Amino acid sequence: MKFWKEHTALRVSLIALFFIVGLAMIIGGWQMTGQMSGLIIMIVGLALLIVALAIYNKPFQDPKR
């Protein structure tokens, strides 16, 4: 997809946003030891880190897909 190759500023800003928010959620949930809400916050933070990684890898994806 050409969109992610052409809009590098958007891609970099989204990666940075998802990375910072995801890392903050993981650290914040980690401090809530013994609470189920802390685990849920950490799982959402992990999902945001995976989304940041997916956005980073999108321009390198095989064009046949």
Describe the protein in words.
Helix 2 runs antiparallel to helix 3. The longest helix has 23 residues. The chain is elongated and about 45 Å long. The chain has 65 residues and is mainly alpha-helical.
End-to-end separation in angstroms reads 9 Å
Query: Please, what is the average pLDDT?
Result: 90
Enumerate the spans where pLDDT stays under 50 for 5 or more consecutive residues.
none
SSE order, one letter for each helix or strand = HHH
Instruction: Output the radius of gyration.
Output: 15 Å
Assembly state of the chains shown: single chain
Strand content: under 5%
Which term fits the overall shape?
Answer: elongated
* E-strand count: 0
Tally of individual helices? 3
| Helical coverage, percent range | over 70%
Q: What structural class should be given to the helix and strand makeup?
A: mainly alpha
The biggest beta sheet is recorded as: none
Tell me the layout of helices and strands.
Layout: H1 2-6, H2 8-30, H3 36-57
Helix pairs in contact: 2-3
Structure summary:
This protein has 3 helices and no strands. By secondary structure, it is mainly α.
Labels describing this entry:
65 residues, mainly alpha, elongated
